[in-house]
Design goal:
Layout (H helix, E strand, L loop, with lengths): L1 E4 L3 E4 L6 E4 L2 H10 L7 H11 L4 E4 L4 H10 L4 H11 L5
Antiparallel strand pairs: 1-4, 2-3
């Protein structure tokens, strides 16, 4: 299980170590729910809603990590956000 704050998501943005904080909760929640939901079950849809309306860290159940990774890879995110999300879903990082 991973726990991620999607409203204050910090990622590297340059070779000199600069970082930027993004709020990706709404974009990710919408992508999970409305862009061909990978799982298509009530639990995944509820997780999408929880992420969308979150204002702090959200626990991601282990059974939804792989489907989320597919949504993230297919989603409208910068490469640095995709890499960091996948890293954190795999249990690495903040």
């Amino acid at each position: 299980m991973a726990k991620i704050n999607f409203t204050k998501f910090k990622v590297p943005v340059s070779f000199n170590g600069s970082e930027k904080v993004f709020s990706i909760a709404k974009v990710l929640g919408n992508a999970m729910k409305y862009t061909g939901s990978v799982v298509g079950d009530i639990g995944f849809d509820k997780l999408a809603e929880t992420i969308y309306f979150s204002d702090g860290p959200v626990e991601i159940p282990a059974e939804y990590i792989r489907p989320m990774m597919q949504v993230i890879n297919d989603g409208p995110f910068m490469a640095t956000i995709k890499r960091e999300l996948i890293k954190r879903l795999n249990g690495n990082g903040e």
